[in-house]
Structure formats: C-alpha cells, structure tokens
Design brief:
about 220 residues; mainly alpha; 11 helices; about 75% helix
C-alpha cells in the first residue's frame, strides 16, 4: 500500500475520475431521472460490481493479456459497443413515465394499483445487471485500472497483486458515494415539473449520448498499437 500522502492523492484522483461524465454516469442519471433515486443507486451498484470484475482480472493478469491480444480486445470492444448502442436505441424509443421506483406510477384516486415495472420488464435486477454489463463489456475500463492503479503501488511491494486488489477495492468503495450523489441529484431534478414534462426529450438526449459512446468505443484502437 502507498504511504499516507500517496493514499490521499489516490483517493482524491479517484473521486475526480468518478465525477467525470461518461457511460457509467449517464446510465445512473438516466435511470434516476426516469425511475427515482433508488433506481439510480441500484444502477451505480451494478457499475461498481462490474468494476470489481476488472480489478480482480487485472490483479490476476487477465486484463493485461486482453490488452495485448488484438482478438480478445476486439471481441470485448464490439460486445461493449453493441450493448451501449442497444441502450441508446432503447432510450430513443422509450415512452416517458412518471418518476417513481422503476417506472412505478402513482395511481389515481379510486383506481386499482398497477405496477408498470412488471409490464415493461424494468426491475431492480434488470437495472443492476445493465450497469454491471455496461462496465464489464467495456475494455477501456480494464485498461484504465491497468494504467491508473499501478502508479500507486511501490516497486518494492512484496505482494503487488494484493496491493492492486486493495487499492481497486478502495477506489470502488469511494465510487459508491459519488454514484449515489449522481443518482440523488438526478432524482431531485426529476421532481421539477419542467423536467418531468421534458422527460421524453431527456431520454432522446441520453439515448443519443449512449449511441455516441458506443460508436466511440467501436472505433477505439487497441492500446498496444
């Protein structure tokens, strides 16, 4: 583990990186805007779970092999790009819904309670799984951990793999607070009438951004080049 000064620097850098908008933040915000804070938090937890896969893979050397293998990198890259494009198209075709838990609409007086979440198939598990896949299928996340974390591991560290896992775990734990903050902020914005009235257009913007992220990933070259 790094000394106290480098550890503080690692935490600060990690927080700033987690605040940077990208596919992960967009996924959290879009779910929180449509379905409330809890949906956004669940989306963030799914993303964090995906990060843990990359942390352990990098510690075991799997990510390094993937970065060096053109075939492995290309397969994962196209899978991730296709998934981001699919999310984008899905958002573009989505219908605006009132803010609640995973599309749960507030029933009118005298009407029977209904749960559109069951009809649309959007459940907490589906949101969690979506966040997980958004990260796991993105080879750029694996490359990020390989490039970022080793800078804070001392060359004389007796067990570099363990140090990598501990730092990666710390990074992911810190990201939970940041991701939850994005979810709460987006859910608070969604309470405003203007935001609710413009939810369809917000979905279109988010869908277009997901498609842009997917295209950007699709045209990303292998790092070894």
């Amino acid at each position: 583990m790094p000394d106290a000064q480098h550890l503080v620097l690692f935490i600060a850098a990690g927080l700033l990186l987690n605040l940077t908008p990208g596919p992960d933040v967009l996924y959290i915000v879009s779910n929180a805007l449509r379905s409330g804070a809890r949906a956004g938090v669940v989306a963030g937890l799914g993303i964090t779970a995906g990060c843990f896969v990359h942390v352990f893979a990098a510690a075991l050397g799997v990510s390094a092999l993937m970065a060096a293998s053109a075939t492995a990198f290309t397969v994962l890259k196209w899978a991730g790009a296709a998934y981001l494009l699919w999310i984008g198209v899905k958002l573009l075709l989505a219908k605006a819904s009132p803010v609640g838990w995973v599309g749960e609409a507030t029933p009118a007086l005298g009407s029977a309670t209904r749960n559109p979440a069951c009809e649309s198939g959007t459940t907490p598990w589906a949101i969690f799984r979506g966040g997980f896949l958004t990260n796991v299928l993105n080879p750029k996340v694996a490359i990020f951990f390989l490039a970022f974390v080793p800078q804070f591991i001392a060359p004389e560290a007796p067990n570099k793999a363990l140090a990598f896992i501990l730092l990666g775990t710390l990074f992911n734990i810190n990201s939970v607070a940041v991701n939850s903050g994005w979810a709460l902020a987006a859910a608070w914005m969604a309470r405003h009438g203007a935001v609710q009235r413009g939810m369809h257009w917000l979905d279109c913007v988010a869908g277009a951004m997901f498609i842009a992220f997917g295209l950007k990933l699709a045209f990303t070259d292998q790092p070894s080049r």
